[in-house]
Amino acid sequence: MGDICTSPLQQQYSPLLQKSKIAHAKRRHITSSVDVDQEFRRTSTMLDGVWGRIIECLGVLCEKDRILARAGLWPRLSPRDILDKLAISQRSLLSESWKEEFIKYAEEVTMVQRVCRISRLTTPEYRAELERELSNSGRIGWDAMSYPDWLLIELETNILIRQVQAEIAIEMLAPSSGENTVVQLNMGEGKSSVRRRTCSINND
Question: In total, how many domains does the chain have?
Fold first, then answer.
């Protein structure tokens, strides 16, 4: 028995096993540290705050506005109306300040969507998907003001673009080499799901 315990295989396997235990403990800590209800309240409060600012600025401000509102002639605003203004055919009509405010609203919507996805992944069989979702806090490596269409894709497909996906997309749009470039996105990084969902949107 002593020879087995001190064998080269045992000596090589023991550190790997220890690393595996540490990694497993970290994953379990991440999973158990999620308070879905608290996170939903937090993101919903943020969303309501941005929506409140928009309504405060675009709502009834004076007696003339109130008369129009009572007559049913004041334009009604819905979240969909706000998000539609970010479409490529509409956002050129927005000032930079309104574009920024509408994008903030859209970003908060994606955060609420994220919490809803997390709430569906809390059972053990979805641990890998949950860890992937928790590791992506959104807009890492890219800015929604620069790429509003990417934000709309997130909204429509109910995803958050991962950092590696953003980096690949930016490299494809503007190769750092200044020349034609071939890039690779590894397996499991969301090529098929993003492409499938985007094609579904374009076909609708």
Answer: 1
Decide if 137 contacts 114 (C-beta within 8 A): no
Condensed to tens digits (0 to 9), the pLDDT of residues 3-19 reads 444 555 445 555 655 65
Q: Does residue 108 contact residue 114 with C-beta atoms inside 8 Å?
A: no
User: Hey, what are 31's tokens?
Assistant: 């999973």
Would you say the pTM of this structure is higher than 0.90? no
On whether residue 21 sits in a domain, the answer given is: no
| Assigned domain for 186 exists | yes
Residue 47 lies in a domain: yes
Name the residue type at position 198. T
User: Does 19 fall in a domain?
Assistant: no
Is 178 in a helix, a strand, or coil?
A: coil
Q: CB 105: neighbour CB atoms within 10 A?
A: 21
